[in-house]
Amino acid sequence: MNYSFWFVVGSQFLYGPEVLETVAARAQEMADELSKALPFPLIYKVTAKTNKEIASVVKEANYDDSCAGIITWCHTFSPSKMWINGFANLQKPYCHFVTQYNRAIPNEEIDMDFMNLNQAAHGDREHGFIAARLRMSRKVIAGHWQDEAVRERIGSWMKAAVGVAVSRGLKVMRFGDNMREVAVTEGDKVEVQTKLGWQVNTWAVGDLVKVMDQVTDAEIDALMDTYKASYDIATDKIDHIRYQAREEIAIKKMMDAEGCKAFSNTFQDLYGMEQLPGLASQHLMAQGYGYGGEGDWKVAAMTAIMKAMGEGGNGCSLFMEDYTYNLEPGKEYSLGAHMLEVCPCCAAGKPRIETHHLGIGMNEKDPARLVFEGKEGDAIVVSLIDMGGRLRLICQDIHCVKPILPMPNLPVARVMWQAEPSLTTGVECWITAGGAHHTVLSYDVTAEQMKDWANMLDIEFVHITKDTTVESLEHDLFLSDLAWKLK
C-alpha cells in the first residue's frame, strides 16, 4: 500500500475571496515542500470553510485505505463548531500542526490586512479547543514548517500512523496453538480485533505439510541461491538447509494466499515436519513478516507492525526473548536470543547458516538456523500484554552492545543490552508492569512513536526510562488502573 496523508487547512468566508485564494496557494506550497522531506506524501485537500466541507473530507479520508491520517492547520481563524461533525466521525489518526506561513513578524509590513491573513496563533487555539472538548486522540506539533526538527517530528508521527493502518488490516496465521501452560502468550482475540484490527486465526500444521509436499526442487534451488548470496553457509548438511527452504516457501505461500503478514508456531506441534522452522522464520522476518515463537501471536503481530513503521517500510525490528543476565558488578547486561528465530536485520556482520541439535521439540533433523551477534546501538523493547479488560503496551529504553563474551558454544543469534535505568531496576519495573519474556526489539522505532501508536488505538502505554523508579512506576500503574476502569 502506498500511504499518504491529507492536509486540511481551516479558514472561513469572513476574510473574502482574495485571502482564501492566498491561504489555498500557501497550503499547496507547504504541502509540496513538506512532501520532499517527509517519509510519505502530504496531499493538500481543502481550505475548509464550512461544516459540510469538513464532514465531507473526513468521510472521504475514512473510506480511502491509502490515507493513513490527516494533518490540520488553521492559517486563519476557523470557528471550531464547524469541525464538530467531521471530528466526531474521524476514524484516522489526527495531527494538529501548529505553525504559520511566515517565520518572523515583519516589522514594516505588519498592518491589519497582514493580521487578518496570518491568524494561526488565533485559529489554532480555537481549533485545539474543540479537539480537547471532544476528548480526541491527537498529536500536537508546534513550530515553523520549514524547520528540520519539526519535519522530523511530523515524519515520526506519520510512521506511527502507518503502524495503525497496518494494524487495522493485519491478519495473523497461527500454525497450531500456544505452547501449553504459558500464560503471557494467551489473550482475548475478540478484544484485540476490536481495538487493534487484528484478525488472528489458526491453520492446521497438517495443512502446512501438504503445501510443503507440493514445493518443487526448482523453487528450493532458487531460494538456496538467495541464501548463498545473503549468508555464509557453515555446514555440510545441505539437505537440512533445503528443508528449511521448503518450509519457508510453503509458509510464505499460505500467508500470501490469505493476506497474512505475521505468523506463529510452536515446537510442541510439528506433526509431519522434520525441523522447527529456524532459518525459514528468520528469512521470512527479513522480508517484513512478523513472527512469534511458542504460539505468541501478539508479538508476531507487533513485529510486523513495527517493521512496517521502520526505515523504508521494513525497519530493524525483531522478535526477541530475554534469556539470561550477566550480574557481575559493573558488567550488568541482558542476553536476548531465541532457540532459532531472531531476524538477521540486526546482525553486526554477515550471518552464518549452521545446523545444530535442538533437544526441545519434535525435530527429526538438526534444524538449520542463522547464527550472528546483534549490532550496537540505542533501541527499545516492547511488550503488548492483555490485562483483562484492556491492553497494555510496555516499552523500555535499552542500549545494545557488542556481546562481552564470544559464547562459542551457543549456536543461536544473540543480542546483548543494557536496560534503563539499570539492569536490576529495569527488570523490577518490567516485571512490575507485567512485561512478557517475548518482546519486539527495535533499533528503528522510537518510544515516542510507540506512544503515539498506543494513543491512536486507545490502549495503555507504559514507558520505562532512565528516570523511572519502581516506586514511581507502582504509583503510575495504580492511578492508570483506576483511570482505565473508569473508561
Query: How big is the Rg?
Result: 25 Å
Report the portion of residues in β strands: 15-25%
Oligomer kind: single chain
Number of helices: 15
Runs in which pLDDT lies below 50 for 5 or more consecutive residues are none
Q: What composes the largest sheet?
A: 6 strands, antiparallel, barrel
Shape: elongated
Measure the end-to-end span. Answer: 34 Å
Mean pLDDT: 95
Helix amount:
25-40%
Question: Strand tally, please?
Answer: 19
Strand order of the largest sheet: 11-12-17-16-15-18
**Helix/strand structural class:** alpha/beta
Structure, explained:
There is one protein chain. By secondary structure, the protein is an alpha/beta fold. It contains 15 helices and 19 strands. It has a six-stranded antiparallel beta barrel. Strands 2-1-3-4-5 form a five-stranded parallel beta sheet, sandwiched between helices. Strand 3, helix 3 (84-89) and strand 4 form a beta-alpha-beta unit. The mean pLDDT is 95.
Q: What's this model, at a glance?
A:
The chain is an alpha/beta fold and 487 residues long. 40% of the residues lie in helices and 23% in strands. It contains 15 helices and 19 strands.
Core attributes:
six-stranded antiparallel β-barrel; single chain; alpha/beta; 487 residues; 15 helices
